[in-house]
Amino acid sequence: MLDTLISGGTVFDGSGEAGKTADVGIKDGKIVSVGKITQTAKRVINATGAIVTPGFVDIHTHYDAQATWASRLSPSSHHGVTTAVMGNCGVGFAPVRSADHDVLIELMEGVEDIPGVVMNEGLPWRWESFGEFMNYLSERQFDMDLGAQLPHAALRVYVMGQRGVDRLPATAEDVAQMRKLACSAMQAGALGFSTSRWLHHKTSSGDHTPTLTAGTDELVGIAMGLADAGKGVIQVISQFDDLESEFALLREVVERSGRPLSLSLSEELSEVSWRDVLAQIEIANADGLRILGQVAPRPIGAILGLTSSLSPFSGRSSFRALSELPLEDKCHALKDPELRAKIIAEPCDAEYERLEDLIDGGKWLWEMDEQPNYEPSEQDTVAFKALAQGLDPVEFMYDRMVDNGGKTLFYTARANYQHGNLDACREMVLHPNTVLGLGDGGAHVGIICDASFPTTLLTHWHRDRGFDGPIKLETLVKLQTRDSAAAVGLEDRGLIAEGKKADINVIDIKNLKALRPFMVHDLPAGGGRFQQLSEGYVATLVSGEMTYSNGEPTDELPGRLIRA
């Protein structure tokens, strides 16, 4: 008898082949048969009218903190993700000496917008080495599988102490120790190593990440630690101010270590055109190197409002004076006509000029509907709607912010959206040298909620866009399953085939949708984070156990730490 039979669905198996009607049989956490199945089963999931896909693999998350205190890795798990990889962008919590706990917290707070008070209360710190961190995680249960990468910042601070924090060059002895520790981390099961060379990655105190200016000898040395272990991938985010020299460095890392590398890629990530970076990636792959661009299927957008970390008026000091008030009291105060006039007329403080430039008086600001539109038009902007009614856009923005009990949310995006459409995203997603990523689940908890990328991928690009022609469902499923799994060396999942891990989604594709994010306060110390639910996921299975049924979590927590 089978444990589970998924019957009558249209199976998109992750190979890129067209969907076909088939049953899927599951036993002991593995897929044991695909086709017409007559065996009986303890549980039958009727998938008639639905599609059946492998579980989604998200290779770019930051659940490093959340995984130490929570079992549900949401929002990702609400969007069909059954495997997540954390430890990206060079930030994380191991290895670490007790004296450096605050250093890593300040870095994670600044880079990934996770409140320091949350981490100070929530992190148990029952480890020093990376292997001990993995051992701690291996004792926990989750609603999906979780893989970890060795973060460069933690490694550098562990080896170099304050010299590492101050971004001083690593000595030969430092590099040798990092290489040894990197090898040890891979042997402990790390999926890879990550680093940041991006100017905007700073601590909560405003200091640049310790890894920003790490030299070629240091990066190559660490990569050679992966080579010593014979496994592990490399993940990089870079400024690319000097594309030729920076890419030469990355090529040297890959050439000498033989390990595959992926790097973050989007519009406006740096001054260099993403097409120029992608051209270098193409050349590298033509030369036999394995370098991929990590790309997103929609804008990397910020959510603004009274429940968010930032509002459209956070740059005004009179507005910030109300920041500690409860939401209801804040709304009441903001409705005062004198305060309203004062805030609207007040100039923006210098440190918030980037925010003001981003929203540009409402020209790059959209109000989020119950089902968010991630490719909105100019006619949907706050400024356009205000002017159409003969109203001042800033005053209109203010009043809409205060409406609905202060729960109105706005969306603003330039990354991947500088031309007001997602044509660049389509090009990046379909390029043979890219892989899906950048959802950042677990990070930017008060201002970004992009963990729903997999849902947008299927709905927007296959079903909803309405021009350019839909991307085939079999192509999109392959991108988010087999290709993502292969990019981090996970060959046991990402396909619906005999012998593969029974991580599976059953999806009502006609009614699939990502809903509007909302703030919840379920973090340690009462910290808030954006949650985003979905509709249309009939069932999500991890190792054959149902973790979600019609969008609702079950009591099953079959997810475990992955050891490469």
Describe, in plain words, how this protein is organized in 3D.
The protein has 564 residues and is an alpha/beta fold. Helix content is 32%, strand content 20%. It folds into three domains: 2-54 and 501-552, Urease, subunit C, domain 1 (Roll), CATH 2.30.40.10; 57-300 and 419-487, Alpha-Beta Barrel (TIM Barrel), CATH 3.20.20.140; 302-412, no CATH class. Strands 1, 2, 3, 4, 5, 17, 22, 23 and 24 form a nine-stranded mixed sheet that branches. The protein has an eight-stranded parallel sheet with strand order 6-7-8-9-10-11-12-16. Strands 13-15-14 form a three-stranded antiparallel sheet, with no helix packed on it. β6, α1 (66-69) and β7 (81-86) form a beta-alpha-beta unit. α5 crosses α7 and α18 (453-464) runs antiparallel to α19 (473-480).
Question: Helices, strands, pairings?
Answer:
Layout: E1 2-11, E2 20-27, E3 30-35, E4 41-46, E5 51-54, E6 56-58, H1 66-69, E7 81-86, H2 101-112, H3 116-122, H4 130-138, E8 145-151, H5 152-160, H6 162-165, H7 172-187, E9 192-197, H8 216-229, E10 233-238, H9 243-257, E11 261-264, H10 274-286, E12 291-295, E13 302-305, H11 317-320, H12 327-334, H13 337-345, H14 353-359, E14 366-367, H15 382-388, H16 393-402, E15 409-412, H17 423-430, E16 434-436, H18 453-464, H19 473-480, H20 482-487, E17 504-507, E18 513-514, E19 518-520, E20 529-531, E21 534-535, E22 537-542, E23 545-549, E24 552-553
Parallel strand pairs: 1-4, 1-5, 6-7, 7-8, 8-9, 9-10, 10-11, 11-12, 12-16
Antiparallel strand pairs: 1-2, 2-3, 5-17, 13-15, 14-15, 17-22, 18-21, 19-20, 22-23, 23-24
Helix pairs in contact: 5-7, 7-8, 8-9, 15-16, 18-19
